[in-house]
TrEMBL record:
Species of provenance: Bradyrhizobium icense
SMART domains given in the database record: ELFV_dehydrog (SM00839)
Annotated transmembrane regions: none
Keywords tagged on the record: NAD, Nucleotide-binding, Oxidoreductase
Lineage top rank: taxon: Bacteria
Active site: K107 (proton donor)
GO MF: glutamate dehydrogenase (NAD+) activity; nucleotide binding
Protein name per the record: Glutamate dehydrogenase
Binding residues for NAD(+): T191, N222
Organism placement in taxonomy: Bacteria, Pseudomonadati, Pseudomonadota, Alphaproteobacteria, Hyphomicrobiales
Family statement drawn from the similarity comment of this UniProt entry: Belongs to the Glu/Leu/Phe/Val dehydrogenases family.
Positions with a binding annotation for substrate: K71, K95, S352
Glutamate/phenylalanine/leucine/valine/L-tryptophan dehydrogenase C-terminal domain boundaries: 184-416
GO biological processes: L-glutamate catabolic process
Sites marked Important for catalysis: D147
Length: 419
């Protein structure tokens, strides 16, 4: 029996089983590596603007603290449940280990539809959630970050709430903060930049000229928009994008800076153009060189995987591809080059680590230094994944996850079991 359930958690368990079998991990070791160390569920009551009280359910899952504090985003969305949060925490562990960060994985969230609450209510909910989490988090225990539905402002409220409780400013309790409140230059762009940088690296591996290449972006939030902008700056034409309100398609290439300005002003791509509207159901199977799923989990199932017409699949979202789709992509390795999520979108946690380090030292870097260091870490992790995949003749996701799981397993084994 377990408190964790749902398709996203089942997917994380399935993926781990594949890796554990590949690494021949004994059955009696697997539970200790896979199961989260701690899960917290809290009630978050707030005063509504009309004077009533509403209660929202919040979660935080810390997967392991073997290598250092846990690290992970906080999601405000109506889909949030304990199983989804646990799966995201597990994936974060493999991600941090793959890129060599001294963290375990964590994730948190509140089950809330943001369209139903005001900004004042959002502040109240953010502060109450952090207040409830204070006994379980800290700069050397668990460091929060933004995720879907949260942003720099929410992180500033988190940091302020924790600091008021401590009686001093503790900037290192969260990352993804505004630069004016201890954030780092380059954090907002980091995940999307990393996705685009790795996609460009793969195009070079495949001898495809970025200047003649095309890209499709599913999801136009923080990750998707900056990935699109960076890819366009590399010379690619962004021929289609989508978000929760619809899709746009232009074979001649969309004006990404203009689209970002529109989305920033209106909260979505809706209303940008009536002439360019497109069926969002078809966006994943459009012919293109680079496809970036940067929205939700489990959007690429076996049927979609069979019909992908991209050369590079750069997973900007967490868990966008189901295990059934992975079996299809394994057969299509010569047609579709997969950059798995735990590598492809790791630029965000890499630069979050830089922010944490800068806050602890109170010594801040220029943006060029942040980006240079981010790309160096991504290059190293990409090389390790590729070498492992070729040496063991395994898919890229298996190689990337095997590296991460091995590091976590080795750290647990060398520390032993206490008491």
């Amino acid at each position: 029996m377990t408190v964790y359930s749902g398709p996203v958690f089942d997917m994380a368990v399935n993926q781990f089983g594949v890796i554990a079998n590949h690494l021949e991990i004994p059955m009696d070791e697997r539970g200790r590596i896979l199961m989260p160390k701690r899960a917290v569920t809290v009630s978050c009551p707030i005063h509504r603007d009309d004077g009533t009280v509403a209660v929202f359910e919040g979660y935080r899952v810390q997967h392991h603290l073997t290598l250092g504090p846990t690290k992970g985003g906080t999601r405000f969305a109506p889909s949030v449940d304990i199983g989804e949060v646990a799966a995201l925490a597990i994936w974060m562990s493999w991600k941090c280990a793959l890129v060599g960060l001294p963290y375990g994985g964590a994730k948190g969230g509140v089950n809330v539809d943001l369209s139903t609450i005001s900004k004042r209510e959002l502040e109240g909910l953010s502060r109450r959630y952090m207040q409830e989490m204070i006994p379980f988090v800290g700069p050397h225990t668990d460091v929060m970050a933004p995720d879907m539905g949260t942003n720099e402002q929410v992180m500033a409220w988190f940091m302020d709430t924790y600091s008021m409780y401590q009686g001093q400013t503790v900037t290192e309790i969260v990352t993804g903060k505004p630069v004016s409140s201890g954030g780092t230059l380059g954090r907002r762009e980091a995940t999307g930049r990393g996705v685009a940088y790795l996609a460009k690296r793969v195009l070079k591996e495949l001898s495809i000229n970025p200047g003649s290449a095309t890209a499709v972006i599913q999801g136009f939030g923080n990750v998707g928009s900056y990935a699109a902008l960076e890819l366009q700056q590399y010379g690619l034409k962004i021929i289609a994008v989508s978000d929760h309100t619809g899709a746009l398609h232009d074979p001649n290439g969309l004006d990404i800076p203009a689209l970002m300005r529109h989305a920033g002003a209106h909260g979505s791509i809706a209303g940008f153009s009536n002439e360019l509207t497109f069926d969002p159901e078809q966006i994943l199977t459009l012919p293109c060189d680079v496809l970036v799923p940067a929205a939700m989990e489990r959007v690429i199932d076996a049927t979609v995987a069979e019909n992908l017409k991209c050369r590079v699949l750069a997973e900007g979202a967490n868990g966008p591809t189901t295990p059934e789709a992975d079996l299809v992509l394994e057969k299509r390795q010569d047609e579709v080059f997969l950059i798995p999520d735990i590598l492809c979108n790791s630029g965000g946690v890499v630069v979050s680590y830089f922010e944490w380090v800068q806050d602890l030292q109170q010594l801040f870097w220029e943006e060029e230094e942040v980006t240079r260091r981010e790309y160096a870490i991504l290059d190293r992790a990409f090389d390790h994944m590729l070498q492992r995949a070729k040496a063991d003749k395994i898919p890229h996701r298996t190689a990337a996850m095997a590296i991460g799981v091995e590091k976590v397993r080795a750290a647990k084994n060398v520390r032993g079991l206490f008491p």
